[in-house]
Amino acid sequence: MTEYRISAGEYTATITARGAALRELRHRERDLIVPFPEGGPIPDYRGIIAAPWPNRIADGKYTFRGADYRVPVNEVERDCALHGLVFPLDWTLQEHSGSAVVLACSVGPAPGYPFLLKVTASYRLEADGLHAGVTATNFSADTAPYGVCPHPYLVAGPAPLDEWTLEVPAGEFLDVTPDRLLPLAVRAVDGHEFDFRAPRSIGATKIDHAFTGITFSDAGRAQLVARDPGGTGVGMAWDRTCQWLQIHTADKQPPAPNRLGLAVEPMTCPPDAFNSGADLIRLDPGATHEASWSIFAA
């Protein structure tokens, strides 16, 4: 598998052509994300770009502008189409320097998605961390439904995830069905175990939910921070284009490795937005959408 290494200051990163995935990110040789082995498959969608939709589409079916579509179901156990169409593709190198890499791919026309998008992912390391973003341009003659998110699993330090403290600037979360993780209703985090607005221990809390009601700074950025009891930490920041944040504590049944990291996915829309229309981007012919985020040692 082709991959590209970049570095700046005390940071190094490796990005693969497959899925434009962030395979490694390190600060002073400490992992800030859960890596995956060189040359092998990408487990659990680690580090991929999810587009032209993040999260899932129920039954792989949706209606857009009066037309019905069906995309392939790849989450068979939940009968959903998960994480879009670009993650299995080999992206094409556009630029590569010592500290930055840009990759691009075309998506569509494809079964259930008769649109043509060019998607570009950029990664740049600076002294303060990794800065990344995705740009999508619609080359179709018709308006296209669109959404995007990154999919890193953050690592705060060597202690078990249960011992990490977490701060999430979100006042609401999306309640979902327990079997298929499909949307039910938005609920306030007040009094709920998902209230991490003030830093506190994750403990045994299991999360695989989207959060919203996010507080952004005057500069238009929001920030999540996880810290290890040993003093290390990791943070992720994102811009206002992502009003939703999927968090997953990576719970697995034995013998699979359990709770290896914290999946943090700033999303432009919630799960099943192709059906609900909630915050769905309607990308007009010739239009471009941009989203950006960063990951850093905290």
Commentary on this structure:
This protein has one domain: Beta-galactosidase, Chain A, domain 5. With about 300 residues, the chain is mostly beta strands.
Instruction: Please tally the helical runs, counting DSSP H or I stretches of 4 or more residues.
Output: 1
> Given the helix and strand composition, which structural class is it?
mainly beta
User: How many distinct folded domains?
Assistant: 1
Assembly annotation: single chain
Largest beta-sheet details: 9 strands, antiparallel
N-to-C span:
31 Å
| Beta-strand residue fraction | over 45%
- What is the CATH domain class? Mainly Beta
Please state how the strands of the largest beta sheet are arranged side by side. 10-11-12-13-27-23-22-17-20
Number of strands: 27
How would you describe the shape? globular
Rg estimate, integer Å: 18 Å
The H/E string reads EEEEEEEEEEEEEEEEEEEEEEEEEHEE
The helix content, as a percent range, equals: under 10%
Low-confidence stretches: none
Mean pLDDT: 97
Which second-level CATH architecture applies?
Distorted Sandwich
CATH topology: Beta-galactosidase, Chain A, domain 5
